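Hey all, quick one. A colleague (J.T.) asked me to put the adenosine-5'-diphosphate job into the tracker so the inputs and the structure tokens live in one place instead of scattered across chat threads. No bug as far as I know, just bookkeeping. Sequence used:
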Amino acid sequence: MADETEHFMSLGLPDPSDSFDAWSDEGYAVIKQKSDDSRKETGKRLKRTFSQVEACKLIGRSESFLKGKGLNDEVSPSNLPRYTLKRINELRDQTGTRYKRPSNVEPLVLAMAKLKGGVGNSTICVHLAHYFALHGLKVLIADFDLQCSASTIASGMNPDEAYEVEETIYSVLRDDPTRMKNIIKLTYFENVHLAPCNSLMQSLEFELAEQMSKPDAEWPQDENGEPISVYDRALIALDSVKAHYDVILIDCPPALGTITLNALTAADGMINTIRPSPLDRTSFATFNASLASMYEAIPNSLRYYRILINQMVRSRAAEKEDAIVRHIYGNYVVRNNIVDSSEIQGAPEDMSTLYDRMKPVKSVQAYKRALESMDLVFGEIFQDLKTLWAMEAEAYDNG
Ligand SMILES: Nc1ncnc2c1ncn2[C@@H]1O[C@H](COP(=O)(O)OP(=O)(O)O)[C@@H](O)[C@H]1O
Ligand SMILES: [Mg+2]
């Protein structure tokens, strides 16, 4: 048998193992260029601003509400007033139009969990965070996914270059969950904070297994000096910061190991994303079986659960799949779907979301269609949360 070198040579290519390092550097250089571009001359990525009409709509007032009041933060090159989300939230607070989670109900910790990679989980996670923040909520993205896509999109930076190990969720879950507040970063999007991870996360699963085999005296300890089980790290970490947010979104890895169990132990809500394909549906059935045994093993129950269909296309095959999923999972499936769109696909490349970018990658029509489908899906979820919180607040008031 030919050795590996000869094998590659025979296909006219050199052994790729000599190139992996250089490819990694080149890949990072492209990300760095993108993030430098988005910062332009200011050294800092600018926050999105809104036109007067958009601002009035977000505040929940008629289009003339802001006219002539001079409350804008800046003007556009064509001398039109522009408003930041910070200002819009202040005006919402002043006019009483900002949605407020009832003070006697708990924030929601939503695990975006899946078995299969590439279903759009991380993309949706950051878009949902931006949608919530646009509508007045305070959001934390906790990135538990070793692919770090949510960290990349939400921060607009390469997390391997941007964060030291002790600034990541990896060190919090491995070494000290009580340090969670120290790793949270502001992002370019108002009221969206990020607990980032980077590629070091790849070894966490293995390292937690190793810790488990050691005496619990060697595990990280909580504030009372008690050892924290490897399954409770996220629970302790997120509980310590939860009060600052309305929603915490956990971007879970595509696997059902200790990291996902941590997420499910900490979460009291879950959204599962699937695409309209028989393969996704089959893997989702497997995932359901695993969830069944996981929920037997962990003590918490869910306050909120939804299945979200992503990358819907106009084809008979996709429509058939959509119908099957809705038949099996009934009203747990979000009524609207997120469309398959090159505009959404462009978001990670651009290290932003449709809510941040404001303009199409290629086509205005496609951008509008993608945004509309996201608005419908996320609008349903937001309405669900409002209903849930109202019900919980009422139950609490009634004792
Ligand atoms: N609705 C969509 N339309 C087109 N491309 C999408 C859509 N949602 C996600 N993608 C693309 O699919 C790929 C996988 O998405 P990602 O969010 O990384 O998935 P996951 O987190 O499930 O692995 C990315 O290239 C992303 O841009
Ligand atoms: Mg992902």
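Adding what we noticed when we looked at it: The pocket of magnesium ion (ligand 2) is lined by residues 121-122, 145, 147, 149 (CB under 6 Å). The longest helix spans residues 364-397.
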